[in-house]
């Protein structure tokens, strides 16, 4: 058991953190070797199993990331941009795999992650599921096949606690559509419509974000022209798919050289 790759989970008290813990333990291919929470959190210093409402696990929740990362092979990180940037630097220092599912990162944040990738294996993706990454590929191909007579809209829905919009997955899909058309997403992105907006600009890629209830994640890419519409859709009903993808990414990265990768690399879709 101790020969299995050791994985740390950050933000372990959150819904995704607890799902990652469960997935690692059930995988049979990895072991949980650390659990991190922010300083001052109620779980810090507690046995993780007890904190999660079960039996003792032997893993104590810590707020000392440097100490914990130094003892493991990989860290899975679904937290917040500022925390992720810090974890990237610490993972690079420890020379371990850093799997990033954090969304809402700025170009400056990503540049710092790029710098860390010179020293560590980093896998960063707005979505870790196989289905979504296949949808990204399909979106790129369909966008390349259709001209600007087809308007493109990315429509996403998530639970009411999600703090960023559009979702990281929606931006992945928008980027894929832009690449298919050979344009820059920054030049054609239309993210907000309110009031008298005027007619839609030809060639724009629109985004719509829905927030409500406990929606895990739904994404549609709509190609709409006069007289016809094409809709590509992915619906997630269990966030376990993201946890399984993240664990797969961590195991894929163990023993690999430094670099900044994504799930297309992990899944062999490039």
Describe this protein's structure.
By secondary structure, the chain is an alpha/beta fold. The protein has 2 domains: 6-124 and 239-267, NAD(P)-binding Rossmann-like Domain (Rossmann fold, 3-Layer(aba) Sandwich); 130-236, Dihydrodipicolinate Reductase, domain 2 (2-Layer Sandwich). It is 37% helix and 23% strand. The chain contains 10 helices and 12 strands. It has helices spanning 15-27, 48-51, 65-69, 81-94, 107-116, 130-145, 168-181, 185-188, 240-253, 263-267, and strands spanning 6-9, 31-36, 61-62, 74-77, 97-100, 121-124, 151-158, 189-190, 205-211, 217-225, 228-236, 259-261. Strands 3-2-1-4-5-6-12 form a 7-stranded parallel beta sheet, sandwiched between helices. Strand 10 and strand 11 (228-236) form a beta hairpin. Helix 1 packs across helix 9 and helix 4 (81-94) packs parallel to helix 5. The longest helix is centred in the middle third of the chain and has 16 residues, at 130-145. The mean pLDDT is 95.
């Amino acid at each position: 058991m101790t020969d299995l790759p050791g994985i740390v989970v950050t933000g372990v008290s959150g819904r995704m953190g607890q799902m990652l813990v469960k997935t690692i333990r059930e995988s049979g291919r990895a072991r949980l070797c650390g659990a991190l929470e922010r300083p001052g959190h109620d779980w810090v210093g507690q046995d993780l199993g007890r904190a999660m409402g079960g039996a003792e696990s032997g893993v104590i929740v810590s707020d000392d990331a440097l100490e914990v990362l130094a003892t493991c092979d990989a860290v899975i990180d679904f937290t917040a941009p500022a925390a992720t940037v810090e974890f990237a630097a610490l993972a690079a220092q420890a020379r371990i795999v850093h799997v990033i599912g954090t969304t809402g990162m700025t170009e400056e944040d990503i540049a710092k992650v790029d710098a860390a990738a010179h020293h560590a294996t980093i896998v960063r993706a707005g979505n870790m599921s196989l289905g979504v990454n296949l949808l990204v590929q399909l979106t790129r191909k369909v966008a390349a096949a259709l001209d600007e007579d087809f308007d493109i809209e990315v429509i996403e829905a998530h639970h009411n606690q999600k703090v960023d919009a559009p979702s990281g997955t929606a931006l992945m899909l928008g980027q894929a559509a832009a690449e298919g058309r050979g344009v820059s997403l920054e030049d054609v992105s239309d993210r907000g419509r309110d009031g008298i907006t005027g007619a839609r600009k030809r060639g724009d890629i629109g985004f719509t974000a829905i927030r409500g209830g406990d929606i895990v994640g739904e994404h549609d890419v709509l190609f709409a022209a006069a007289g016809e519409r094409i809709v590509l859709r992915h619906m997630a009903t269990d966030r376990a798919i993201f946890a399984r993808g993240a664990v797969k990414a961590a195991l894929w990265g163990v023993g690999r050289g430094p670099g900044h990768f994504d799930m297309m690399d992990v899944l062999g879709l490039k």
